[in-house]
Amino acid sequence: MRHRSAAAERNAAAMIRLLIVDDEMLVLVGIQSMLDWAALGIEIVGTAHNGTEALAKINTLRPDIVLIDINMPVKNGLEVAKECREKYGRLPLFIFLTSYEEFSFAREAVAVQALDYLVKIFLTPEQLRATMTKAIAAVHELKPEGLPSAGNSEAGAGASSTARAEDFFQDRFFLQLFNGFFKSPSQCREKAGELGITDDADYYAVIICRTIIDANRGTRRNSSKEAASRLYASTLQTAKETVVKYCPCAVTGIDMQHFAITLFAHGMQDELKTLCSTLLSKLREVTFSYFSVDLTCTVGIPVSSLMDIPLSYRSAESLPQSDSDPIIYAGNDKKTQHKEHIIEAIETYIRNNITKKLSLNDVAEEFGLSATYLSQLFAKTGGTGFVEYVTQEKVAAAKRIIKDNNDIRIYELAEMLGFDSAFYFSTVFKKVAGCTPSEYRDSVQ
After folding, report:
1. Model-level pTM?
2. 343 CB contacts (<8 Å, ≥6 apart)?
3. How far apart are CA 273 and CA 83, in angstroms?
4. SS3 272
């Protein structure tokens, strides 16, 4: 058996010890292969599949960091962390993996002084590396000096964890809002209320900012990626600190190149351009001066309620970003065009899903709109009411089916097109076509 050299022994002793705990084997394997752990100075000393096994391995392996799932059999991750805090103190540090997005879990994570928490389905190597880098620094702070005494340092850590929790769940809320996650205004307001977000602004508007980073930063590919990640994080933080001086807002990261600013503005909607011109000019000046990062921005249409923010987001998203024109607005003409584009998309969706029941609420949810807004938008822009349009399209589809299959029975046709009964289908058909489905079939024959 070959013995390790003294240098190798010292290097092994200097490695940060990591235990990974999850009841899903694919997650365990995926995390172990996600990063070059040795390059980070981390040794994976073991894995566990439930909370009881994790406690036993923490006792024998003495890891510095535990990356652990919250929801597990036997004992969950929060219970494991609580027992370790009472038994061992500040080490090991705990980082939680979770599939849950409720703020109550964040509160409990703060109570056990979690370093961070990561949502599995959104976890990227960059995010995991950034969290581990932070954890390594925290371990080095704790180890030489011994465990911190209860006092200001502990209170500061708790406050920091609380701030991270609030930032994380606010970002999740706005990403869900942009993408039409909420089914009703009441659900949206309830989630907003949990995060202290009020629906009392005179109007709202979303700005999408694209970061343009000097491609010559860094000499190696990996270092350039890391530099770009740090610059993006710095730009995002600078945006939060700069824009809030001009208007209440939320700044949300979208991807590693784009972020969104949601304005909670007071005053008249026609003042939006003046407000944005001032705050975006200042923001572009600061980010370029500090980080050599340029920004191009698209400003969405103003909307009057929190639930209609997706309209502003989509109007900003649909605008082209131009290096020659760094701030582009969705003006009144663009607003009209955007509404028409939404109606066209909805009409296409109805035609492609004509066999479904297609209620107003279901279609509104599909497009991230409130049912009331969709009804009003359809009537004003589409030239007819929503229900009337769906009815006309279903009757037109019925006529096509009858022409293609003259032997089809009326009750089969009604069921195929999502009607509750053949009688109701015949009534609707006659109202639109002026004859019953049977009479139409006879005329086709």
Report:
1. 0.47
2. 377, 378, 381, 382
3. 55
4. helix
